[in-house]
Specification:
It is globular and about 65 Å long. It folds into two domains: about 15-55 and about 65-220, Rossmann fold (3-Layer(aba) Sandwich), CATH 3.40.50.300; about 225-485, Rossmann fold (3-Layer(aba) Sandwich). The chain has 16 helices and 20 strands. By secondary structure, it is of the alpha/beta class. Belongs to the CTP synthase family. Keywords: ATP-binding, Glutamine amidotransferase, Ligase, Nucleotide-binding, Pyrimidine biosynthesis. Catalyzes the ATP-dependent amination of UTP to CTP with either L-glutamine or ammonia as the source of nitrogen.
Length: about 500
Amino acid sequence: MMWGRGGWSKSKMKYILVTGGVISGIGKGIIASSVGTILKSCGLHVTSIKIDPYINIDAGTFSPYEHVVPHITDAIQEWVMRQALIPVDEDGLEPQVCVIELGGTVGDIESMPFIEAFRQFQFKVKKENFCNIHVSLVPQPSSTGEQKTKPTQNSVRELRGLGLSPDLVICVHDVSSIYRVPLLLEEQGVVDYFLRRLDLPIERQPRRMLMKWKEMADRYDRLLETCSIALVGKYTKFSDSYASVIKALEHSALAINHKLDIKYIDSTDLEPSTLQEEPVRYHEAWQKLCSAHGVLVPGGFGVRGTEGKIQAISWARKQKKPFLGVCLGMQLAVVEFSRNVLGWQDANSTEFNPNTSHPVVIDMPEHNPGQMGGTMRLGKRRTLFQTKNSVMRKLYGDSDYLEERHRHRFEVNPVLKKCLEEQGLKFVGQDVGGERMEIVELEDHPFFVGVQYHPEFLSRPIKPSPPYFGLLLASVGRLPHYLQKGCRLSPRSGHLPRPSVVMVPHSSIAPW
C-alpha cells in the first residue's frame, strides 16, 4: 500500500461503482450506503457520489434539449476524480474510498455515456483500484414459488456487453428492513472481499460503528407505539418526491422508539375551493390533519397548493400542534403569521403575488427572475444562533452555530423582522451576515419551528436531523423532558427478523 506524506496517496484512491439492472429502484442507494457504512466502520475515510445519468447543464431545471456533447466521457471521469478527493469527514483528510451510485438501469439510453465513461475509467485507475457491484432482482413468481435468476443473467450479460464486468452481484428480494443490510453484507464477508480485491488498509479491531448500527436495527422490531405526522405538500401522490424528508422522519422516529405513520395530505384538498367541488376529499384531508400528532410542511416551488399549506400552518399554530416548516414551509409560516396575527391580509411571497403590499417573502438579490436555472442559493451554509434561549439551539447541542444545506431562491424579508418578532415570531438563527433569516420559533407554543435550509439532507439513521428530531419528540410529548435531561435518550435493545440479501461473486453465477 502506498502512503504519501499527507497520508493515503491520491494515486491509490479506490473506486467502487454500483450499477443496477432489471428494474429501477432496485436498491442501488441502499447497497451503496451500506458498503460505505461498512468501510467507515473499518476506519476508512469514505466519500460517495450519486450520479443521475442526464447530460444536462442544470439538472435542477431539467430540459432534454440542453446537452453537453463534446468529450463527455472525459469530462465525467475528470469530475468523478475531482469530487472523490473532496474531504467529507470532520478531520479534513482526503477520502480513501469513493462509492459511486450510477442511477437508472443498465440499458437506459441516457446512461450510455456514463457506462462508457466508467468502462474507460477502470483502465485509467487500474484494476486494483476499481470494483463494480451490480445490484439486481431475483423475482419469485407466486405461481411457482421458485426464485428466477434469468433477469439477473440478462442484466449482467448486457452490462458485460457494454464493457463492464461486475465483481460482485448483489441480489435483493423481500427485504423487510434496510437497516439490516450493512450487517448482512458484513456477515457475508464483504469486508474481507474488499480487503483482498482493493488491497484496503482495514483496521483489525472491533467495529464500534457497526455495533451501534446493530443496536439500532435490533430496536426497530420492538417498536410498539406509533407517532403520526401529517405531511402537507403538493406532490404527495408520489412519496419518492419527499424521499429525503421521509427518511429524516424515519430516523427520528426510530431514535425515540416509535413507529412512523405518515399521513400524506395534498395541500389543495385543504382549500375552500375543494369544499365546493369535492367535499368528501376536503373533509377527509382535514380529518387526516386533525388526527395527526404533528404537522410538517416541506419545501416546494410554485403557487399551487400554497393556500392549503397556509391553512394547515394556521391550524397547527392555533391548536398548538407541533409544526415544522422546511424552506417554503418556513416562508409560508411567516406569511400565515403576518396575515392572521399582524393583520396584513394580503401578506404573501413575491413568488406568488409580485404586487402584494406586504411582501414578507422576497426574491434574493442574486436571483435573476428571468432565468430559473443556476440561480438558487445552494450548498452548505453557516447559521448563527442569535440567542441562548432557543429550543433549536439546544437540539443542535447548544452550539453557537450550525451548518446545513440550502436550496432556495426566495427569503424572508429582513426589513419586516422587527414587526414579526414584536408579536412573538422570533428569528433565532441568521446567516453570518445577519441579512438572511434561517430559523424561526414561535413563543408560547410546544414546537412551532421553521428553517430556511433543508436539514433532511444531512440526517442519518444513527444521527437524526435536529429539527425533525424535535418535531417527533414534541409530537409524542417528550420534548420538555428531553431538554431537561440535557438532550439525552436511553436506547432500548431488541431483535429484528432477518431480511433476504444475497451477495455472490460474479464468477459463481450461471454462465451465459
